Sequence to fold (345 residues):
Amino acid sequence: MKNLKTIHAAVDPSNPDDAVIGQAAEIIRRGGLVAFPTETVYGLGADAQNPEAVSRVYQVKGRPSDNPLIWHGNSLTDFECIADFSTDRTCEPLSDAWATSGIASNVQKLAKAFWPGPLTMVLPLLSEAGLIPCQKTIAIRVPSHPIIRALIAASGCVIAAPSANLSGRPSPTTAKHVIEDLNGAIEMIIDGGPAQNGLESTVIDLSNGKVPQLLRPGAITLEMLQDVIGEVAFSEFKVSEDAAPLSPGMKYRHYAPKAPLILVIGSPEAVSAKAKAFTTEGKAVGLLTTSNDTLETVAQSLFGRLRQFDEMGVDVIVAEGVKEEGIGLAIMNRLKKAAAEVIYL
Ligand code: TXA
Ligand code: MG
Fold:
């Protein structure tokens, strides 16, 4: 179904062109799909309150229908009619825990500390919202990138947006990546240069009145969250095979490069020895090392490099593990999801 004439427009992120943003906003208002940069990765946006537009997002990505989308607005109040974060609520609480746990105050604290920015909060869905069948919670984010902020303002819509890649491909960090996956399937792609963070937003679940749960690590680190609201739990994997995933996204394998990725946890020497061994076997090796870069640079370039290895047709990818603290936790989370094998040397 890639038979649309996708509009391509370059926009200066420091001074978004009103005419281009206006054109994109009109497409969103009419139920079309627009891809745009955010501070994390490129997103594929639709009017969140238009069920047909939202269902097309699933269609063009090939995304399983039980994996919900993040709603993007320009302030917490944009979500008043969908998410429950009020301290003086007028409707029935989802649970007693919600009423007494102080989640609402955690929402306020996190919003104050990290919004606009790369943090997504999962909150109880307002029961009276009635918009999203089969869902009890809603993920919301206030991004900081000027282009998506301008688009939200100009369209007057809250924008539902997953990452703008085909399901199972690495998230796109440039407009070129979006073109590879979605050209001809959506109405417009806005090129605003490379996404700054390169990894998707941090997702924290505050919905159940228990200890807040980190579902997806990102540039807002576990340590930063703990500094603001105290205890935050994180467990990367399901406790048992039968247990329901904490987040629908957790049960799908992401970012799978074409060649098997071997994640090596050990010294830089151990990593290069492993790569050499594959070369000796006559294999073309894609090497992902981190030695001379800052972790921020590693995060920013990770998905792009995985896509490059696909293009080059390497036989195997050898990736060097990093310390699981700060942004390193998010990098390792993505590497583990992409890995066919993890080796400790
Ligand atoms: O940085 C980002 O978050 C980017 C940009 C475009 O904002 N968006 C993004 O969306 O990464 P997506 O759909 O690729 O990832 C959203 C993640 C998925 O793992 C999904 O399962 C989880 O958030 N999620 C969404 N709604 C949820 C909910 N109600 N409860 C638990 N997890 C949820
Ligand atoms: Mg995604």
About this structure: The mean pLDDT is 90. The chain has two domains: 7-229, 261-344. The chain has ten helices and 14 strands. Residues 261-344 form a domain with the Rossmann fold fold (CATH 3.40.50.11030).
